[in-house]
Specification:
The protein is of the alpha/beta class. The chain is built from eight helices and ten strands. Helix 2 packs across helix 8 and helix 3 packs parallel to helix 5.
Length: 285
């Protein structure tokens, strides 16, 4: 028996779509086969249109039609996707997706366009505790993108530039507006772009590590997910701060970290579909 599901993660910055086939009918002991994936930056485009395009795109990539799909699961801001079968809370989908990407993960650090959160999980992806940044925190993808634009730096360059810093200028402001003002002042003082970016990463990393400590995780792996998961400069700053704070947790990312929420949605969709099928079979019997 197999269940074919699509997971759609609609975030503030991008729409991620994945297509999975789960064999044996459960998300716990079944074999998951990842068949297709797509990611589209929103960039002022209509979210529902992008969700539809992602949905149709992963089916086309896998050579499947709508009749082949058993469950369409959304997460993030996807509650209003009309063609979806069900919706799952993003914290649970990132937790499940994180364990799929890295079975050793015992925490997921989801850093999106607007906020960040640390989620302490067990080996099956169950959420044990969590802590989120405040809405005003200067630790989001949108904040970093705004700074990069002001500095004239491509987003793809941020990580390598930050890691080349020799004398980082730390940003202390928690408020994003004040932090941006700090950066403007740094530029006027002639601070090097690499040192500014490294300072921002250090400030973000400090808050992220504090969030992790609050969740209660002691050992294991913390997997970065979300839009900033592949920012090598941020990952390096987090690793450095963990050493400084004597946190015995290994921080790392995965090439497909941005898909964690969509993956979790697809796998939870398979689980829910399997349970509903079992209930229907029991009623018929």
């Amino acid at each position: 028996m197999s269940i074919t599901t699509i997971g759609l993660d609609i975030g503030s910055g991008a729409v991620k779509s994945v297509l999975f086939r789960t064999h044996s009918g459960t998300h716990d002991d079944g074999r998951q086969e990842w068949l297709a994936k797509r990611c589209e930056r929103i960039r002022s485009r209509d979210i529902m249109t992008l969700a539809q395009e992602g949905f149709e795109g992963v089916m086309a990539d896998a050579g499947l039609s709508r009749d082949d799909i058993d469950y369409i699961a959304t997460t993030g801001e996807g509650e209003n996707v009309k063609f979806a079968t069900g919706h799952f809370y993003s914290m649970t989908t990132h937790a499940r997706g994180g364990v799929f990407l890295d079975p050793s993960a015992r925490a997921v650090v989801d850093i999106g366009a607007l906020n960040g959160r640390a989620i302490y999980i067990d080996g099956r992806g169950k959420v044990l505790s969590y802590k989120m940044t405040s809405q005003c925190a200067s630790g989001s993808g949108q904040f970093l993108e705004n700074i990069a634009r002001y500095l004239g730096v491509a987003v793809e360059e941020i990580g390598s530039l930050s890691q080349s810093s020799k004398d980082p200028e730390k940003v202390s402001s928690i408020c994003a507006v004040l932090a941006e003002t700090d950066v403007i002042n740094m530029v006027s003082r002639g601070i090097a772009t690499a040192d500014i970016l490294k300072g921002i990463h250090m400030s973000m990393a400090s808050r992220i590590v504090k969030l992790l400590k609050i969740t209660g995780i002691k050992t294991g792996t913390a997997l970065l997910t979300g839009g900033l998961a592949l920012d090598s400069g941020l990952l390096a700053a987090i690793q450095e701060d963990m050493i400084a704070e004597k946190v015995t947790v290994t921080a790392r990312s995965h090439p497909d970290s941005i898909y964690a929420g969509a993956i979790g949605a697809a796998l939870w969709g398979a689980f829910r579909h399997g349970k509903l099928a079992e209930l229907e079979a029991a009623v018929v019997a």
